[in-house]
Each structure stands twice: as structure tokens, then as C-alpha cells.
Amino acid sequence: MTVTTSHYSLLAVLCVVLIVLYFAKRSLDIINNPPKSKKKGYGASEDEPVPLPTPLNITPEEVKTRDDRPWRPFRWPYHQTMSIFKLDVNHWLDMDKYYYDYIKEKERVIHTYGPDNFDSLPGSEDACLELMETVKEHMLLRYPLLFTTPDNGVHVKNELTGEVLDFSEPLKENPLVYISKMAKEDFYVVRKGEDGAHRLVAAAVPFPGGSFGIKYKLGKTLDVIHTEVPYYEEKLKPSMEKWFSRMKPADLVERASWYISWDHKLLLNNVYALKEGDKVQSDILPSQFNVRVERQTLRRLPKSKAIIFTNHPVFYSIDEMKDEPLVPSLIRKIIYEAPESICKYKNFQSFRDHLLPYLNNLVDEQIKKGLITEDTPVKTMPTYPFASFLKDSDDTKGWSNPKYPVNYSKEFHKEIETAPVLERDTFARSAKVGNLIFSST
What we know:
The protein has 441 residues and is of the alpha+beta class. It has one domain. The chain has twelve helices and ten strands. The longest helix is centred in the N-terminal third of the chain and has 28 residues, at 5-32. The termini are far apart. Keywords: Membrane, Transmembrane, Transmembrane helix. InterPro entries: HODM_asu-like.
């Protein structure tokens, strides 16, 4: 076949059309799927907007049976790191069935101990006000059926407690009190001074698990606050200072720490009420032991530049985790083989021998059930830091344990009735801090 000039012209036109279509498609791909900026770690850019939560339309009635994400922060080998994960803003202030119990316990603590657990320094006012507004905005956006307002946030009704919070100026109470009436978390406000050091300037900490003693901590640098934390100086301090120095308002992270006790108290757990060298009482049933998970978050406020640290304690009985592969094995290994300084800090020596036969039995049962074998390596679970059933639910349904659903509200109420005596005796015995601001495990 003879190729004519017209054929060449047609081919040229087709090539041009193909090139135009290729670049048009590429442009659309870039518009629809813009390339992600290369960031080191979780660092956001200065101009990245602060994320806002999406509405979760759960009702007060649904909250009564709701569980948060199930934490299982057990690691082996056990080593000290910040162990932070990027935080979805929707989970900054979570909601679960213990919400009302926590809010009522906050009321008791503030009325009983006041500035020992709720206080601030002059110069922190702008940070505390910004935190209050941030918490209020989050609750109204995230939980529109739990927090309602007829006047754009001047008055907010907590539909779970029935209380109407008056935010009209001048405020009737300290911003820290308003915060504590909305969220069940503890809050710490940290600011960088002219000398470059980060200091605790305000705190609403009713649930430290031990004797926090805010009056001894306000104004102190993180170095002083972390005096008793194992490996802080050599391992944690460099990571924390580096993270704080580059943290932007759009950077939100979370982590989890844990220890073991045999109660559900929030201000002072039994394990930290023991005298030095004491052991758990022999009549305490092993099935009563709980892992207290300290679910923690970090974020920076955009206006004041203050760093906000939150802590939300939640309890998981060892018994409810008994059929989760490797959990009993990990707990047994950690309480005996973790570095001695960690064992002392968490007071493992006070109960581990008492708990050992029970843990041995749980491990044997897992082998019999085929959940693990005798040769299964004891190492961090692939779903760390959460339970394996996290994937089987979502925000709307919540994350109740499918095999062993738990509600420890009744036990909590009974324990709180006797808590004042334990607190009085323990606090009188020693003013020494029992649980520090950034639990580092």
C-alpha cells in the first residue's frame, strides 16, 4: 500500500491528540489525587489547618453500653520509647459507658482536694481559655446529640449529666472546671519559657492513679517532673524535646502506657497505696487484677502555642483478655523480665508472685485451646497497640469485647465508697509523688 501525504497528516494529528489526552489525564489525576508532601515523622507544615472532628450521632442511651477502642499496649522486647502514633482527631476525646462515673468522680476529687489536683499559674490564662474553647468546640462537633447549644455555644447542655454550662463572660468558674465537666480525660498544659525549657503551667488531674501533687509540679520543667521515670534522661528526654520543638497545631499523636492493680479507682490505685516493700494481700483473687491503660494524647494549641497532654485511664481485667493469644504470656514475661527499674517503678514485685500461678494456668489453657503453642515466640502482637477485635467494629457501634463483655461500674462505685480512707492514710504517710505526668512505659 502506498503511503500518501494525507496518511502522514492523519498520523500527526492522532499523535497530537494522544499527547493532549495523556497530559489532560495526568493533570486530572494530580488534581484529584494531589501528591503527598514528604514529611519527616508526623510533622505537619506550618500552614496545615487544624483538623476538626466529624459528627458521631450517638445518643445518651447508646453511650451507656459503648466501649472505646480496646487497648493492648504490651510490648516485648520491652524498651523505653515515646511509642507515639498519629492520632485521628475524632478520638482526641473519646466517649464510653463509664463517662458519667468519671465525671462524678471528678466532682468528688475537686471538692475534696481542690488545688492538689486542679490548679494553674499566672500567665497561663490564655492557654486555659483556648483549651476550654477547643474542648467545647470538639464536643459540640463530635457529639451533637450529647452536647447541645441554643445560642452558638454561650450555653451548652451536657445531655449525659443534665447540667447546663454557662460560658458567658465573665466566666463563673475556672476554665479547667468547665473542661472537666465536659471531658473525662485529665489535662496538662505545658508551655515553653524564654529559656527554651518546657514547663507545666496548668493541670486538671483528678485521675493520676497515685499522688500527683500539682502544687509541687506547677512551674517545674519536664526534667523535674520526670525525675522518677526510668530511662527518661538518656532515652526519653531527647525524643520529647525534639518532638516538642517541631510540633505544629495539625500534629496530633497518641500513645498508651499501663500498669497493674486489683481495683478500678482513678485517683489512687491500690498498687500505689502500698507501703514500700508491702505485698498484695493473699486473699485477693487473681481474677480481680486489672491492667490500667493510660491512653494519652499530645497536641499544640494554635494561638497560645501551649502543648496539651491528655490522659484517659481505662481498665481491662486480665480475665477478659484470657483468650486473646499471647496476652497472658506477655504480661507474665514483662512483670518478671522487664528491666529492674521498670519493675520497681510499676511495683511489679508487690504482686507478681501472687499472680504467677494464675498466669501460668491461662497460658496452659491457651495452649490446650490451640490459641498458641509451647513454641510460640512471646513478642509484640501484630495488632499492637490494640486488641485483634478492633477491626470487627467501628465508631458507630463501639468496640465491646465480643467474647467477654465487661461493665465494672458496680465494682467502681463500691471501691469509691472506701477510697477516702485509703487516700487519707496514703497521702498523710508520704507527700512523695507516686505517678508522674508523662508515664513513659
